[in-house]
Structures are given as C-alpha cells and as structure tokens.
TrEMBL record, chain A:
Protein name per Swiss-Prot or TrEMBL: Metal ABC transporter permease
Entry keywords, A to Z: Cell membrane, Membrane, Transmembrane, Transmembrane helix, Transport
Species this chain originates from: Aliibacillus thermotolerans
Keyword Membrane: yes
TM ranges: 6-27, 34-51, 57-75, 87-105, 139-161, 173-196, 202-222, 229-248, 254-274
Alphabetical list of Pfam families matching this protein: ABC-3
Gene3D superfamilies: ABC transporter involved in vitamin B12 uptake, BtuC
Family statement drawn from the similarity comment of this UniProt entry: Belongs to the ABC-3 integral membrane protein family.
Subcellular localization, as worded in the UniProt entry: Cell membrane
Membrane topology, as annotated: Multi-pass membrane protein
TrEMBL record, chain B:
Gene3D superfamilies: ABC transporter involved in vitamin B12 uptake, BtuC
Similarity field: Belongs to the ABC-3 integral membrane protein family.
Pfam family, one: ABC-3
Name this polypeptide is given: Metal ABC transporter permease
Lineage: Bacteria, Bacillati, Bacillota, Bacilli, Bacillales
TrEMBL record, chain C:
Gene3D superfamilies found in the cross-reference section: P-loop containing nucleotide triphosphate hydrolases
Glycoprotein is among the record's keywords: no
Keyword DNA repair: no
PROSITE patterns: ABC_TRANSPORTER_1 (PS00211), ABC_TRANSPORTER_2 (PS50893)
Species, as recorded: Aliibacillus thermotolerans
Keyword annotations of the record: ATP-binding, Nucleotide-binding, Transport
Family: Belongs to the ABC transporter superfamily.
Gene Ontology terms for molecular function: ATP binding
Signal peptide location: none
Domain ABC transporter: 6-238
Name this protein carries in UniProt: Metal ABC transporter ATP-binding protein
C-alpha cells in the first residue's frame, strides 16, 4: 500500500473503533471520561517506560490499560465520597497527567517521549515503522496493533450487545437481573483505555477524544436505534479520518489536527440538517405548525 | 539557591501565579455550584485557535493580543456548548468534549500553518500554550495580575448576588436580579481567568486550578463566603508553592507542580476535612453502628 | 410458616452521613399487595434498594423465601422509578420490555423471535401493542410507566418491588396498572409498591406499611391504616392534613 494509503488506513481504524466505543460513552453520559483517560494514559506509558526501559507496543498497552483502570477506580472512589462526578474526573486526570509530565521532565527527558507528541501524535511516521507478517508482508506496527484492537472492540460489543444496552439504559434493573454492572463498567473503561493507547502513538490524545465523542454525538442526532447508531458512528469516524487527511494535504498542515477538525464538520452538518433532531428541521417544523394552526 | 528567590523576577512570577491561583480558586467555586467543573477544561482548549489566529494576524507575542484572541475563541466554544446542549438531546458533557477536541484540533492545524508562515521564533507561542511561568516577561505579569485582581474584585463586590444566583435562580429573578446578566458575567470571569492562566500552567492543567481548590474548600466549611475564601487560599498556596519548587530546581515545568500541590491539599482536605472528611466520617459511622448494635441488644 | 416470603430483622441503612433506616422489622406473606407510604425522606426508596442490595445495609438480616437474596434472585422483579433512566436512549418500547428477559436469554445469546413474541404479549396486556416499535422518548409519562410494567410482567417473578409506579401517570394508566397489580395478586404473587397518595391506599392495597425511618406499623389495611397511625407516621395531625392537601393538588394535576 502507498504511504498515504497506510496513513488513511491507520486513522480509519482509529475512527472505526473509537466510533463504536463512543456510542456507549455518550449514552452512559460519561463522555468526559474519554478526555480524562486519554490524558492519564500518558502516565501509564511513562511508568511502563521507566520500569521496562523500552517504548514497545505491548508494555505501552499494558501501562495504558492500568492507567485507565486506575483512573476509573479513582473517579468512582471520589464519587462515592460525594465529590461531584465531573469534579472527580477533573481532579483525577489533571493530577495523574501532571505527575506524568513531571516524570517525563525529570526522569525520561532523553526518551522519545514528550508531551506535545503525546497530545498530537506523529501519524506521518507510522508507515516507516513496519513489521513483517506472514502472508501479508510488511505492515506498519501501529496498523497491526490497531487492527487487533478494532477486532477485539467489535467482538466484545457484538457478543455483549444486550448487556451493554441494559447496563447503559437501566443499571438498577441490570443489577437486579444479576448482571455484574460494576465489572461491565470497568471492562468498558478498559476498552476505552486500550483504544486510546493504541491510537495514542498514531494520532495523539486530542484526536482520540474527538474521535470518541464527536462521531457518536453526530450519530445520536440521526437515529433512534442503537444498532444504527453504532454503524453510523463508526462510519462517521472513518469518514472524518479520510476527509481530515485530504484537508491536511490541501492546507499542508497537521494531519491529526485536521482529522479532529473533520469530526467537527460532520457534527455541524448533522446538527444543522439531521432529520427530527437537526435544528433546521426543528425550525421548519415549528414554522409549519404555526402557519397551519 | 536562595539568591534565586531573592531575585525580583522570581518574586514577580511568584506574585502573579499566586494571584492567578486566588482568582481561579474563587471562580472555581462558582463553576462548582453551577455543576460545570469541566467547563474550564473545555474552554481552555477552545482558546487555542484564537491564540494562534491573533498571533498570525499581529505576528507578535504580545500577551494582551493573545488574550483577546483566546477570549474570543473560548467564548465561541462556550456559545457552542450552550447551543448544542440546549437545542438537542446531546448532554452538556458530550458538548464540552466535542468543543474541547475539535477546537483544539483546529488550533493545532492553525499552529502548524503559523509555524510555516511566520518565520522566526515561535517557541514563545508553544510555551504560552503548554505553560511556562518562568518564561513570562514583566509586562505579561502586570497584565495577568491586573486582570486577576479585576476578577477577584467582581466576585467580592457582587458576593450576595452570586449567592442568590447560584442557589435560587427563580428567586433571583423575583428580586429583579438579571439571571442572564449574571450568566454573562460568569462566563466573562471564567474566560478571563482561563486565558490569563493558560500561560502560567498550560491549556491542559488550567482546569485543575479551577476545580481542585473549590472541591478542597468544600471539606472545611458550609458557608459560601467561607468557601470562596478558603478556595482562594488553596489556589494561592498552590500557585505560589508550585512556582517556588520550579524556581528552586530550574528547568522544570511550572504547571504540573502547581497541580500536584493543589492535589496534595485536596487529599489532605479529603482525609482530615472538618465537613465530611474521611477520618471524621469513619468515626461517625462506627459510632452509628455501635448505637444500632446497642439498641438491638437493649 | 411456609407462606412467609420476606423476613426483615433489625435492618439499618445510611444514606451519606445520616441513618435513614433503623431497626426495620417486618414479614411479608405470599399473595399480599402492600402499599408502602410515608413522608418525603422517610426512606421508602432506600428500603427497596437496600432489600435488593442496590444500596448497602449497615446491619440486619434479610431473608427472601427462607434464603438469601442472591439465591432467590430469580423470583424477584424490580420496577425502578420512571425518572431513574434516560428516556432519550435510542431504543424501542418492545426492546425495553425484552430487557426483562435478559436473564432467561442468558449470556452470549441474542434475543430470539419467541422472546420478542413474549415481550409483545406483555405490551398487549398493558394496552401498548400499537406502540411496540415506537422510540421510547416519544411515549407519554403514562405510556412509559406501562412499558416498565410490561417489562416486569415478562420477568415472571413471584415477588415484585415497584418504586412509585403511579407518580405522574394519567387516570387511565393508573387504572390499568392497578388492574394488573390485582391480577398479579390473584395469581398468588407478592407485590410491594411505594405509594404517595394516601387517599387511594384503602382502595388499592390489602396491606399497608407505614414507614418513617422505621416501620411505624405494618399489616392489613383496614386494621393498620388508621388516623392515629397515619398521624404518628407523618408527625402530628397538622402535618398530615398538609400532606393530604398536597396530594389533592397532585391528583388534580
């Protein structure tokens, strides 16, 4: 595949898996957990680096998952101590992120780890860093990682589809039916962190947040069916990745920034023109009602 | 080592981060009661495109120019959050997340373009975005201190109005207080504090300076005025001590240390706070259990 | 004593810093239809949640069918307050009812046609068949409550806990729900309902529990539901009169 092809493919995998997960983030009203986890993952990666001395995929993923679970746990802990939910997120993620930044500055200064990189990613280098797979040939490492994670995400969502639906809609009933609601919550947050870590190196924290929240929010305006929302959201994610790439080419600017921006364009279009929930439709509807009555 | 502390520049940096902490702590209380703790996070990210556009247009790193750009852009973000969360079924936190990420993405796009267009030194811009209090020049500090003092002044002057506005909007309307006006004022001081704070602690950690002191203060008092004072105190201490640490070990980023100090104060409050602190709560609970057991036996 | 289906001894529960429930004792017999009444903050919802282990108990013992809740879980159905879920959730009425069958369907399996048919049947029983494929946000408050009831019906439990099912519903829905509750009772099921309208208690329930942080009185409605006991629960005659007036206003709405 060509250089551009690999970049688009990498970003599409991010868009696909984030799009799926984002739907449940939105429906569980924990969208900002995406922001929190995408930042604390940095600490996980730094700690993994300090322990193992290398910046390889596996350690990064493990470090990231641990960071995600720790974040989720701490936020839940503060919540159970009567701290407002969004305040708990704010305190936990800024603290862990600050510790991460301090560790980078004091202990890991010479490693290929810096805050700016973590936030924006370096998608342009993805195609150069390859590994050889049987039957397929040379494939960028990030693509392998992201492909595996996309499959895992898809599988877990399909297999536990009805449990995700019930625990998101009515956790009290779910608990009384014997579904382990807390365990499902941690599993879900682990999925968020795995996806974030895998996407991290390629596109950076901020684009992960954009990809997790915006396509799902846009899809929420188009449909009243959960299954349709999942399909739409992941498609929007992929679409934004492709469009973003070409915007970046056209303006000769940051690819991941453009992709984040492209999710915004998709949302604005949905916000304006989606049937029943778009504001143009709402406006016309109100107009028609007032003229007929 | 102490000579660094005695240098007048360090003293000025110390003063400005302290006053910033005070202002942020107080504004954070208002955000806390409006249940918009993460608004500061969203808006500090949303400020980025404005900063870069101002930089491109005027091709210089004048703090007040960047601040105006940041403020305009953050206000657009606030407007967008308001529009989406009131006119669709998308919740406020999702709207904040979108604004945060999309605006930031746009900012990064513009920043990359700016780097290409404006030849010469743009490292000042990067330190502005990621926060480096030590890199501030004297005139920046004057601007910061002046604006932070203005925010504190507005909060004190309208203390009873804020109280009514936060606890009972309907009543506020009844006594002729313009809720809309207060909304605007709230967004105004929130944005002002954020944009002056970005330079000292950075886009990402600005939220901590707003959220953490307010929540910490909650563990010590029940009255609003006292909470404002304590939050200001915690914010001020965080700003000053964080800056002090980085001044003594030069080269370290200021923002993260300010945040870690604020978080330590929070953990202390959470444990030992007079209102609902964990230790007190634990004692209370075991006492409850004992009385229940005693009642059952008796 | 085989017909004792729920036995609670010395139950206590706290909400945040305050003890909400203390020394709660009662036994429920099979086939009874109980209304749980008490002033605001009396701990009615907390009681149900504590019984169902959705809220931690400080102390005390709870026995369902002479065994623990975990073992009796299959026999117990729960209808949360309508306001406890997000009605903008992208799903249909039929889908919500099918959720009641998730335990029967089991892990890793998808609902099949027979499950959907059963859910549809329950909707039909609640007079909601025409709305089966409606998005749930497009339903009125009464219709949403009927969907919740239908979901409880498909669970096919022996004992039901319902948290304020009659709040904010129209008169027709109130009648439909009460008809179903009487039917459940006739089928030998046990039903406990958190209720807020004192005026309808005698008409609706054969047993009543007067609750104010502890059980003031529990038993057959005609024996227990006296003016004195109500006054005791609501803290004095004056308060009770006020409460009654509130309820009048409420039902007019």
């Amino acid at each position: 595949m060509s250089y551009a092809g690999w970049i688009i493919f990498t970003a599409s995998l991010v868009g696909f898996s984030c799009g799926l997960i984002g739907v449940f983030l939105i429906l569980r009203k924990t969208a900002m957990m995406a922001d929190a986890i995408s930042h604390t993952v940095l600490l996980g990666i730094v700690v993994a680096f300090l322990i193992t001395g290398e910046l390889s995929g596996v350690y990064m993923v493990i470090g990231g998952i641990v960071a995600g679970i720790v974040t989720t746990y701490l936020v839940q802990l503060l919540r159970s101590l009567d701290v407002q939910h969004d305040a708990s997120m704010g305190i936990v993620f800024t603290t862990l992120f600050a510790i991460g930044v301090i560790l980078i500055a004091t202990k890991a200064g010479n490693a290929h780890l810096d805050v700016q990189h973590a936030l924006m990613g370096e998608i342009t280098f993805i195609p150069f860093h390859t590994t050889t797979l049987p039957f397929i040939g040379d494939v960028p490492v990030a693509v392998v990682l992201l492909a595996v994670i996309s499959v895992v995400v898809l599988l877990l969502i399909v297999v536990f589809y009805k449990e995700w639906k019930l625990t998101s809609f009515d956790p009290a009933l779910a608990a009384s039916l014997g579904i382990p609601v807390t365990l499902m919550h941690y599993l879900f947050m682990s999925l968020v962190s795995v996806t974030t870590v895998a996407s991290f190196d390629a596109v950076g924290a901020i684009m992960v947040v954009a990809m997790l929240i915006t396509p799902a929010a846009a899809a929420y305006l188009w449909t009243d069916r959960l299954a349709v929302m999942l399909v739409l959201s992941s498609s929007f994610g992929i679409f934004s990745a492709v469009i973003g790439y070409y915007i970046a080419q056209w303006l000769d600017t940051s690819i991941s920034g453009s992709m984040a921006f492209a999710t915004g364009i998709v949302f604005i279009i949905s916000f304006l023109f989606a049937p029943t929930h778009g504001i143009v439709q709402k406006y016309l509807f109100v107009k028609r009602e007032t003229t007929t009555s | 080592m102490w000579s660094i502390l005695l240098s007048s520049n360090t003293q000025w940096v110390l003063l400005s981060t302290m006053i910033l902490g005070i202002a942020a702590g107080m504004v954070g209380c208002i955000a806390y009661f409006k249940r918009q703790n993460l608004m500061s996070d969203a808006l500090s990210h949303a400020a980025l495109p404005g900063v870069v556009i101002a930089f491109i247009l005027f091709a210089e790193k004048q703090l007040y120019v960047l601040i105006i750009g940041a403020a305009v852009s953050a206000l657009c973000g606030a407007l967008f959050i308001q529009a989406v969360s009131t006119s669709t079924r998308i919740s406020e936190d999702a709207s904040m997340g979108m604004v945060l990420a999309v605006f930031y993405g746009l900012g990064i796009m513009l920043l990359t373009i700016a780097n290409r267009m404006v030849s010469g030194n743009q490292s000042g811009l990067v330190s502005f975005i990621y926060g480096q209090a030590a890199a501030m020049v004297r005139s920046d500090m004057y601007t910061m201190i002046l604006l932070a003092l203005a925010v504190v002044f507005i909060l004190f002057l309208l203390l009873k109005e804020w109280k009514v506005y936060l606890f009972d909007g309907g009543f506020a309307k009844g006594i002729g207080l313009s809720v809309r006006g207060m909304d605007l004022l709230y967004i105004g001081i929130l944005v002002t504090t954020i944009v002056i704070g970005i330079q000292a602690v950075g886009v990402i950690l600005m939220a901590a300076l707003m959220i953490t002191p307010a929540v910490s203060a909650r563990y010590w008092t029940k009255t609003f005025a006292m909470m404002l004072l304590l939050s200001a105190l915690f914010g001020g201490i965080s700003g000053a001590v964080g800056t002090l640490i980085t001044a003594l070990w030069s080269g370290l980023p200021t923002g993260p240390f300010i945040v870690v100090v604020a978080s330590s104060l929070f953990i202390f409050s959470l444990l030992f706070g007079k209102e609902k602190g964990i230790v007190l709560r634990f004692i209370e609970q075991s006492r409850q259990r004992k009385t229940i057991e005693a009642r059952e036996v008796g | 004593m085989r017909d004792i289906v729920l036995q609670v001894n010395h139950l206590a529960a706290a909400y945040r810093k305050n003890t909400v429930l203390h020394d709660v004792n009662f036994t429920v017999r099979a086939g009874s239809l109980t209304g749980i009444v008490g002033p605001n903050g009396a701990g009615k919802s907390t009681l149900i949640k504590t019984l169902l282990q959705l809220h931690p108990a400080l102390s005390g013992e709870i026995r369902f069918y002479q065994t623990t809740y975990q073992k009796a879980k299959d026999k117990i159905g729960y209808v949360p307050q309508r306001g406890s879920v997000d009605w903008d959730f992208p799903t249909t009425a039929l889908d919500v009812v099918t959720m009641g069958l998730y335990r029967k369907i089991g892990w890793l399996k998808w609902p099949r046609a027979k499950h959907k048919a059963k859910a549809y049947e329950a909707l039909e029983k609640m007079g909601m068949a025409d709305y089966a494929n409606r998005q749930i946000s497009q339903l009125s408050g009464g219709q949403q409550q009927r969907v919740f009831l239908a979901r409880a019906l498909v669970q096919d439990a022996d004992m039901y806990f319902m948290d304020e099912p009659l709040v904010g519903v129209d008169a027709a829905t109130e009648r439909a729900i009460m008809a179903i509750l009487k039917e459940l009772k006739k089928a030998g099921k046990t039903v406990l309902v958190v209720h807020h309208d004192l005026q309808t208690v005698s008409e609706y329930f054969d047993h009543v529990m007067l609750l104010n942080r502890t059980v003031i009185n529990y038993g057959k409605t005609e024996v227990v539901f006296t003016k004195e006991n109500i006054a005791k629960t609501y803290g004095g005659n004056m308060r009770w009169m006020g409460e009654e007036e509130q309820n009048v206003v409420h039902s007019v709405k």
